[in-house]
Amino acid sequence: MKHKTLNLELSNDQFADLANALEDHRDYFKKRADEASLGFGLDTGYWQSRAAEVQELLQLVLSSAKHEQH
Questions:
Q1: Could you tell me if 49 and 29 are in contact, meaning their C-beta atoms sit under 8 angstroms apart?
Q2: 3-state SS class at 46
Q3: What's the longest Cα–Cα distance across the chain?
């Protein structure tokens, strides 16, 4: 998979918005995984893996911001 490099300068509000959006996106996938366990939509594993991918992205964003503050 190709990787993208992002160099962003965000205000504190923009950064908070980005982090909140990623959390909401992750939680949406978790909800879909719960629904899948009841027999709706795609299988649970798919949604759980998507939630994990977004969590990893969120961790990268948060970690990157911490390194920039120092």
A1: no
A2: helix
A3: 48
Residue 1 host element (H or E): none
Tokens of 57: 């992205």
CA-wise closest residue to 32 among 43, 20, 21: 43
Count CB atoms within 10 A of the CB of residue 5. Answer: 4
Mean pLDDT by 10 residues, the chain (70 residues): 82 93 96 89 90 94 76
The beta-strand segments (E) located in the chain are: none
Whether this model's pTM surpasses 0.70: yes
In this prediction, residue 34 carries a pLDDT of 92
